[in-house]
Amino acid sequence: DTGVSQNPRHKITKRGQNVTFRCDPISEHNRLYWYRQTLGQGPEFLTYFQNEAQLEKSRLLSDRFSAERPKGSFSTLEIQRTEQGDSAMYLCASSLERAVETQYFGPGTRLLVL
Amino acid sequence: AQSVTQLGSHVSVSEGALVLLRCNYSSSVPPYLFWYVQYPNQGLQLLLKYTSAATLVKGINGFEAEFKKSETSFHLTKPSAHMSDAAEYFCAKAKAAGNKLTFGGGTRVLVKP
Which of A70, B37, B52, B111 sits a CA distance of 20 to 30 A from B9? Predict the structure, then answer.
């Protein structure tokens, strides 16, 4: 399978705990994006990387959120001190660098904070 | 202000009938526009995209969309609905640079036999 993969697919945690999600992009894609999708809404942009550089962060990404892409390949999204409002689907996408290349999405990680 | 607006959060069509999903955008420059489909518990799959070439764009699964600058619209159509078209559909726009997507709220399509 050469698509975007995300792990875990589901995560249930208690409020206040830290969680980390992983995204493995399509191998030759140097852009990687994170989006958050709450129930009944469209995805909202969180952040994106070009290679290992984080080029843009949404104001939705509070101080409790941090994303990394240390070697320009896979990426991790960590949420510290989770809150019930963090419950959502976290989607990862990747693309080539060329102007407005198609973004290919992974299956998402569904987070439930109790 | 909403940058991408999808009129109708739910649409119900009969199998074999026309599917019409509406999308309007706001942008100071002509944007790049996309339609994605999301099946339950899955990620988003690209149906089609407009990148300033032909205004009528054909996509996968028999879908097409027409870019109308004067109406700031990019409505999605399919002549004949199949049961397999039941899903949620998202319209999105992107700037020429940066490429982050701004999505509409989505339209859930129900296909009746």
Answer: B52
Contact call for residues B15 and B113 (beta carbons, < 8 A):
yes
DSSP-derived letter for residue A93 is E
If contacts are CB pairs under 8 Å, which of residues 75-94 in chain B contact chain A? Answer: 90, 92, 94
Shortest distance between the Cα of B110 and any Cα of chain A, in A, equals 15
Query: Which tokens go with A36?
Result: 């958050």
CB A51 within 8 A of CB A72: yes
Tell me how crowded residue A108 is: count the other CB atoms within 10 A of its CB.
26
pLDDT digits (tens, 9 = 90+) for B6-56: 999 999 999 999 999 999 999 877 789 999 999 987 889 999 999 877 889
- Closest by CA to B99, choosing from B35, B52, B34, is B34
C-beta of residue B67 within 8 angstroms of C-beta of residue B55: yes
